[in-house]
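#help-structures

NK: newbie question. if I give both the sequence and a SMILES, will the prediction place the ligand too? trying with flavin-adenine dinucleotide
OV: yes, paste both and it writes out the complex. here, I ran yours:
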Amino acid sequence: MFVAFCVILATLVLQGLSLPALIRRLGVVDDGLASVEERTARLKANEAALAYLAEVDSLFPPEIVKRLRVEYDDRIRQLEVCASGSEDRDNRLITPSYQRLQQAALDVERRTIIQLRDEYVINGTKMWATNGEHSTVVATLVKTDPDARPPHRGMSCILAEKQYPGFTSSRRIEKLGYKGVETTELVFDNNRQPAANLLGEVEGQGFKQMMAAIEVGRVNVAARGVGVAQRAFELSIAYAQVRHAFGVPIAEHEAIQFKLADMATKIQAARLLTNFAARKKDAGERADVECGMAKLFASETCFEVVSEALRVHGGYGFSKEYDVERLYRDAPLLIIGEGTNEIQRLIIARGLLERHRITG
Ligand SMILES: Cc1cc2nc3c(=O)[nH]c(=O)nc-3n(C[C@H](O)[C@H](O)[C@H](O)COP(=O)(O)OP(=O)(O)OC[C@H]3O[C@@H](n4cnc5c(N)ncnc54)[C@H](O)[C@@H]3O)c2cc1C
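OV: that's the protein plus ligand as structure tokens.
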């Protein structure tokens, strides 16, 4: 029904990289998922890679993973093909997936109908659903108790299945980048989901479940930022050696050398910050500040680096014939997704104030 590549990654994420054998086979033992993400983002013709990454972005609470009967072998094969950077990657690997949504505005009503079959009746719309058209099941945050105080205690996560009438993906949203995966609006119109689709079996846990996933999502975005930036750097340093201006390769101009040096230095700093956050999270330690820092720094670095890469490429940077143009369009989403960078700064500052609170 729904495919699994994302499930593997979700499993990796949420259960602390719980497939060490797979990670070893991919040769990324130390940094686990963050490395897989970075490598994937660097793939050459990588629209498919970005689509994958969007799926990776679907991070599930562990209960979801438990509910799936994952057959690992096929998924490991797919992941290996993807992580190997092979040119033979197949767009069919862009698969349906669970899709996590951060949606708290849907109204929901629980009804007991005559056959004594409990159901949730969901009404509302949700913009920006990555993979919304292909998903068959969508983890949807809904208000099950609108009167709860504080309000987040009244939210629950329902694994809404498209097989039940009244749940559709109404339209695709045209976007600047990330075109390898669709982003859609979802509509719930008196959609009835069985009560068994409530995640965790107890209402009111939805916000907590989503928040548990989102920190990992931030490391995920950070690693994507490192991967996209690294690709932009690699393209730039190669181009700078073959493009001649004023009789020499542009790599011999100090202005270009400084750009390359700054790009590589910032990317390495972003990578270290990302891996630090990933390890902390993996060790089960509190990592809100670290994940926020990694996401903030790596995505801003990516944005800067792709911009510099475009300059290094001169007019060709503006041409669709060169990959750097696509990287330039893909980078901004990393600043927005998994909580904008303005929000990351708030999270970091709050965490720091909490950790450094002075008494008396
Ligand atoms: C391509 C794409 C795919 C997406 N896929 C998904 C998905 O699959 N699932 C999903 O749930 N969501 C998805 N999103 C939504 C994404 O998570 C949100 O767009 C993002 O969190 C920002 O929310 P917003 O668009 O409502 O911006 P807003 O919250 O309206 O923010 C607008 C501006 O105000 C700033 N701002 C807002 N509040 C504050 C504050 N308190 N303090 C300071 N500044 C503030 C923001 O930083 C931003 O600069 C996707 C978005 C895009 C573009």
